[in-house]
Amino acid sequence: MNKVVMYASVSVDGFIADEKDQPGPLFDWLLSGDVPLDESGVLKVSQTSYDYTRPYWDQLGATIAGRHVFDLTDGWDGTPPGGVDHVVVVTHRGRPDGWDPEGPFHFVDGVEAAVAEAKELAGDRTVEVAAGDVGGQVLAAGLVDEVRMDVIPVVFGSGKRYFGSVNAQHLLEDPDVAIQGNRVLHLRFPVRR
């Protein structure tokens, strides 16, 4: 059975981007080491970060993201990020013109439908939900099993919040992983049920 994981790199004060949707130094840890994280050779992390991140990436079957992120990235130029097989995009506007309905991008209305679609596409692999507004909505709906954060030593002061506009308390279990890499602290919290 697959699990649903909310994930992003995040500032110490809880932001995944600044007010202009820029991540600033949040991804610097992906360039701070000497161990290639993927086949491109561009992403290089510490051995510690590799040992934590690579097995997680290898488990991913589908990613859920909002239409805002899809538009900001220009749909990742038609190739799902990080080698993921499928991306489920939560949108009220439907599929953009020109997108192949048989391709790896799936456009759905609502987070419950997105999680159901992503679970089906992922099979027994992990479903990742991008943190932010959509991730916060999935958490609020009680559909997140685990929260992963790559905490970066920077304070933004304002910007796009990791949990979006969640306005209710949600308890997490104690972290079952806390690993220090170069310029990053990897944390993993099971969601309390």
From TrEMBL:
Residues 4-172 form the Bacterial bifunctional deaminase-reductase C-terminal domain. It comes from Jiangella mangrovi. It comes from the Bacteria. One of its GO terms (molecular function) is 5-amino-6-(5-phosphoribosylamino)uracil reductase activity. GO terms for biological process: riboflavin biosynthetic process. SUPFAM superfamilies: Dihydrofolate reductase-like (SSF53597). Coiled coil: none annotated. Gene3D superfamilies: Dihydrofolate Reductase, subunit A. This is Dihydrofolate reductase.
